[in-house]
Amino acid sequence: MLQCSIIIPTKDRHEIFQRTLEAAVNAGKENCEVIVINEGQEDLDIGQFDRVRVYNTGGKGVSYARNLGAKLAKYDLLIFIDNDILLNAENVRRILEVHFSFPKALVNPVWRHSDHIQNLKKTSLLGRFMLKYFHDDSFKSRYLSNNKCNWKENEVFQSQNDGFAECCFFISRKEFLKAGGFNEDFKFGKEGLEFSERLNTSGVKIFIDPQNVVIHNEIDRYVDYKLFVNRKKDDVDFYLHTEGGSEKVAPLITVFVYSILFRIRFIFEFLISRIPNYKILDPIYSKNLLILSQITFYSFLKERRKNQKTCPESDCKLQCIALFILNLVTD
């Protein structure tokens, strides 16, 4: 019988994580070990689960956590899930079956939201906002937004997307390590895009299994708008990495304006928290949340610029003077 290692990075989502851990242990039964990489500051309570190994990293990022899990795994087949993915026994059975047919590939099961989250998309301000800007927000809808015709409902097929869904995928340990694992400069967010490029270079293809559906239990994302806003920090890290420097992401004057707005962000936070839950007020709620998210993005960008040790070679003196004034005025 093929055995596998289920690797779960987690950080500060205790209630959601407990459901994920219980589901993973029950789904794996005797065939799987479960490795938890704790990125949080507090120790985890794993209760009665004696087949679970826990390692604390001190918050080095999800890429580091996944790489560590791969190195510690006993078995060649690695199943990576986020701390909000619910597996069942049928999911694991299907993974073992598909891996036998595609032993050198990375394969994505597909995810969908729980019925509870689907209901929030219709009944709450934040839920309707998320539905408007992320549409159905399932694995399939995100994939089809980039590939209108490339979907096969009843068979495993090769992905035409750049990247893959990091929240749930499986791959052999040998192929994972051959590609070099995740880039640990990506603490959280967009790390799969960069990793997929190296997978392609090492000859590892990415496949999708639409018949294997897992539940994405990110319920907190639909009840706390601050989680949506704070993920803009991950966007900053990604754009700085891909664009090669903060001055290419946004002009200094744009960062300056949003840095000023950051000083009065409490106004937008107050409005968001006080808007009544009526559909007619959705546009006001959405506008305020979008403004707040942009303020957050550029405030993170300003901090990254402030922490840069050197200026770009082009217009170095001008950049340094402008950056000094920006920090002086907005600090």
Low-confidence stretches: 245-249, 310-331
Helix content: 40-55%
Please count the helical segments: 15
Strand line-up across the major sheet:
3-2-1-4-8
Q: Describe it for me?
A:
There is one protein chain. This protein has 331 residues and is of the alpha/beta class. The chain folds into two domains: 4-221, Spore Coat Polysaccharide Biosynthesis Protein SpsA, Chain A, CATH 3.90.550; 224-330, no CATH class. The chain is 50% helix and 16% strand. The chain has 15 helices and nine strands. The chain has helices at 14-28, 62-72, 89-101, 115-123, 125-134, 139-144, 173-178, 191-201, 225-230, 232-243, 246-249, 252-263, 265-274, 282-307, 316-330, and strands at residues 4-10, 32-38, 52-56, 77-81, 85-86, 106-113, 157-158, 168-172, 206-216. The strands form two sheets. Strands 3-2-1-4-8 form a five-stranded mixed beta sheet, with helices on both faces. Strands 5, 6, 7 and 9 form a four-stranded mixed beta sheet that branches. Strand 1, helix 1 (14-28) and strand 2 form a beta-alpha-beta unit. Helix 4 packs across helix 5 and helix 10 crosses helix 14. The longest helix has 26 residues, at 282-307. The chain is globular and about 60 Å long. The termini are far apart.
Write the layout of secondary structure elements.
Layout: E1 4-10, H1 14-28, E2 32-38, E3 52-56, H2 62-72, E4 77-81, E5 85-86, H3 89-101, E6 106-113, H4 115-123, H5 125-134, H6 139-144, E7 157-158, E8 168-172, H7 173-178, H8 191-201, E9 206-216, H9 225-230, H10 232-243, H11 246-249, H12 252-263, H13 265-274, H14 282-307, H15 316-330
Parallel strand pairs: 1-2, 1-4, 2-3, 6-9
Antiparallel strand pairs: 4-8, 5-9, 7-9
Helix pairs in contact: 1-3, 4-5, 10-14, 12-14, 12-15, 13-14
